[in-house]
Design brief:
Blueprint lengths: L2 H11 L7 H5 L7 H11 L3 H15 L6 H22 L10 H15 L5 E2 L2 E2 L1 H16 L22
Antiparallel strand pairs: 1-2
Helix pairs in contact: 3-4, 4-5, 5-6, 6-7
Length: 164
């Protein structure tokens, strides 16, 4: 089974499928299950999985898609939290202990990629993820040796308005 097939199976375990998704939403706009899966994974601190499910959609749509940078920004946001989570779990590890600077760079890239879509895009109030990326980038800039993330205060992204 290739990665794309594994992601499709994983999305189904979250309860989001291409076929049955419309019934769940009623008359609301149809959105890709990968987009919903991103928020489910992110909000349960499964940042790597959030990155993977949205990357699946991002790669499928391609570079010329109008949402290319939007999805890329959300993927970078999750990726930054992957770095923080691993550093938090293994601060003395030779590789994981050095993940704070890459996390900061991803937060800054996420901001840059999301800002052109503000204030709202795909039912998401972009002030929230942009502010989140900015706040964590600032914390890492001023206290570069201190990880601002912990499981007890992990951020939550609201599921975009109007789709659930």
């Amino acid at each position: 089974m290739n990665k794309s097939e594994r992601i499709e199976v994983f999305i189904k375990t979250l309860g989001f499928t291409h076929g049955g998704h419309e019934e769940h939403l009623g008359n609301e706009p149809q959105v890709d299950p990968c987009y919903l899966g991103y928020f489910e994974c992110f909000n349960t601190r499964r940042y790597y999985e959030a990155h993977d499910v949205l990357e699946h959609l991002w790669l499928k749509d391609g570079r010329e898609a109008p949402d290319y940078a939007f999805y890329k920004g959300l993927i970078q946001l999750a990726g930054a939290f992957v770095h923080l989570k691993l550093q938090h779990a293994h601060p003395l590890h030779p590789k994981h202990g050095k993940r704070l600077a890459p996390a900061r760079r991803l937060f800054l890239l996420a901001q840059t990629n999301l800002m052109p879509y503000a204030p709202h895009h795909h039912y998401l109030d972009l002030k929230i993820p942009i502010r989140l990326a900015s706040r964590y980038a600032d914390r890492l800039a001023t206290a570069s040796e201190i990880n601002p993330w912990s499981p007890e205060c992990a951020p939550i992204l609201p599921v975009p308005n109007g789709i659930v």
